[in-house]
Amino acid sequence: MFNSANELEFLEETTAEISQLSSLALSGDPACSENSSAGSPEKTGYPDSVYILAANIFQGTRLEKSPEKALIKYGNEPLPSSTESEDESFQRLSYELAFSALKYQDILETILIDSYIFPSTTIPDHLNSLIIVMLYDFQDRKFQARLLSGNEESIAEVLEVENLLNSFKTKLAAALARCRIKHDALSIYHILPETVRNQELRASTLPLYAWINTCKISPEEVYYTLKKNGYNKVKSVLHIDNKVFAVDQHCYDVLIFPSHLKSDLLNIDLFKDYKLIFQDKSRSLAVHSVKALLNMDDDILMVNTGSWYTVAHMSVLTNNNTSKIFVCGVQSQAKDPDLKNLFTKMGCKNIEILHETFMKLELKDHRLQKVKVILLLPRCSGLGVSNPVEFILNEHEDTDLLKDFSQGGPSEDKLHVLAQQQYEQLAHAMKFTRAQAIVYCTCSVYPEENEAIVKKALEFQDHEIKVQPYRLSPPVLPLCSLKEIHLSTDKFFRMEPSEITNGCFISVLTRERDPSETVSVKDVLARAAAKGLLEGIELGKSSKREKKKKKQKMSLPKSSIADNSGIQMKIAEFLSRETNVSANQPETLTTKTSLPQKNTNQVGSSSQVRKPSKPTTNPLVPTIMKNTSARPHERPTNFVRSRPEDRMIPLKPIEIALPPVILPFPSPQGIRSHLPTPHFYYRWVGPKTVLPGYLSTPSILRRGEKPKENLPSSLPRHPRP
User: Fold this and answer.
1) For the segment 105-115, what is each residue's pLDDT rounded down to a tens digit?
2) Which residues are catalytic?
3) Where are the compositionally biased (Basic residues) regions (predicted)?
C-alpha cells in the first residue's frame, strides 16, 4: 500500500516514463548491447534450474556486510538443484547471472528496500539470494514477463519469487529510476567502479583463441575447411566484422577469431570433433614455453592445470616425442573415466593422472624419475583476465574469484594468502632434484604474485641439495613487438591486458650447467643409437688411416728424437769416412765434394782449409761426434723415420763442419792471394735429400720415392773462384 497521496501521484505521473527509463537500465552494459544488437532476439528469461544454481553461487560468493548495516539477511541453506545444472551450458548461464548479481548487489538491495518489498513481505531468508538474481534478470528484461517453454519443469521456489516480483513491478521500476537519477547516470552500468567497467568492455571485444589439435588434423586442412565455410585468412582480426581468422604470432598452432563469431564457430565440425579447441592464449603460451625446453624423452609434471584442455594441448605438442605427462591434484578417482574418455576423443595417449596433491608428492617418487620440466600454474587473483566466468569454468578455479572480480580486485589479505601459496608451491618444485627447468605462469597483473614470488624463491632456494641451483632464464617465446621486448628486459615474459589479449606472466627457471656433466658428441650419438633413433645410420668405426694418423700422432715425439739421433750419427760417420778418403784421393775428393754442397741443405759453420796429412787434427770433428753420439761407429738400426701422412715435421737445426778441401793449385799461397777465406753456411732440412755418387745411402729414401727438389730459398750460397 502507498503511504501518501503524493507518492501515488508521483507514480501515476511517472508510470508512462517507466518503460523508457527501464530501457536505459543497462543500455551502457557492453554485454547487453551485444545481446540487443540488430537481428538478435530479446531476452525471455532463463530456465528454473539456472535461477536455482545462480542463487546458490551468489549465496556462497556474496559480499557480506556488518550486522548493523545488513538490512537483508541471507540464509545458509542452499537451494536444491536439479541434474540439469550439471550441464556445461547451464553452468555457464548460471555463473554469468550470479556474477552480474554480484556486481550490482548494492544497487539491487537498494531497489528492494526502496520498493518496500523488504521488510513488508515475509519470505524465508534462504530465498533472498534467489530474489536478488531473479530481480537482476527481471530489470534486464525491462520488467517484461518471462516466456516459459512447454516441456520445462517448474520449481516451486522460482514460481513463488517470480509472482512476488511481478506484483511489485511498478514499484521496482520506480525505485530503479530514482537510483539512476540519484547517481546522475544514464544506466546503473555507469554506477559500477571504473575497473569493473573497463573489464566488461574488454570482455565484449576480446578475440577468441583456439588451438589446432594436430593429432587429428593438420593446420593446412583446418585452413581449407575454414575457407570452405566462408572464413578468410587475414593478418589481424581487430575491427573486422566479417568471417575471418588469423594465425597467432607467438604460437604457430593457435588461431584468432572475432568475438562475435563464437556461436557460428561452435556449429562447425572442427569444434564438435575436437579438432579446434577454444582456450585462453595465456595457457597456450605456457605449454609452448615447456615445449621449447624439452628433449625427446623428457617427462613433464603439470601442477594446478585447471582446464583439461591445457593438459591435452601439452600432450598434442609432445605427440612425436617419447615424453609422458603427469597431472597431479585429481583427488576424485570417479573423474578418471570421464577424463580418459575426453583424452581419447582428443587423441591424447601420453597422459598419466596422479591423485596426490602436488605438496604431498614425494621427491623420490619412482614415477617421476624422468621428469625434467615442471609446469606450475598456481591459483592466482586472475585480474589480468577480462571474462572471469570463462576463466573460472575453464580453469576450475574457486568461485570466490567472482567476488574479487565484482569488486575490481582482491583484498590485501586475500592477495597475501594467494602469494604465500604460490611461493610454497614454487619452493617445493625446486626440491625435485632431477628436474632441470620450471615454467611459472599466472594470469595476474600484481607483482606480488609474479616477480616477487620468483625472486624470493630464487633467493631462498636450498643450496644444501647436491645439485646445481636454479637461475632466471630469458623468455623462450618469440618477442613480436618493441613493447614485448621492453617488458621482458628483466627476463620475465609479460603481456598486459588489452583489447586483443588477457594479461599473462611467464617466468622460466633453469638449473645452472654443471661443468662436470659436459656431454660429448660421441656420447650423444651413442645415446641416440641406443634408443633406435639412428636406424640405418652406422656410427663408423675409425678407419685404418685414422688409426694410423692417431698412432703416428701419439708416437711423434719419440720418432723425431730417434730420427734426429740417427741423422746425426750418419753425418758423423760420413765425416769420418770422408776424412780418410781425402788423404788418399785429394783431387777426386775435391771434385766430388763440391756436388753435395748443391744438393744438401745444412746449417753449417765456417770450415778452414787444412793439410790432408793431418786429418785428425780437425777440432770440429770430435766435437760433433761427441755431441751427436757416444758410439759413432755403431751403425744405427733405423735411420729412416716413419713419414706421417700429409704432414711435415720440422727438424731442429744442427751444426756440422765439413772436412778440409784441397784445391788443385800448385801453391796454397796463390790460392790465399786470390780467394777470400771461405765461410760456408748450409741449412739442414731433412733426411730425404739424395746424396749423389757414393754419398747416397739407401736408407735415406724409400723405394719408389723420388727425391724432392730443394726450394730456391734453401739453395746453398757460396762464392765462386
Assistant:
1) 999 999 999 99
2) 443
3) 542-553
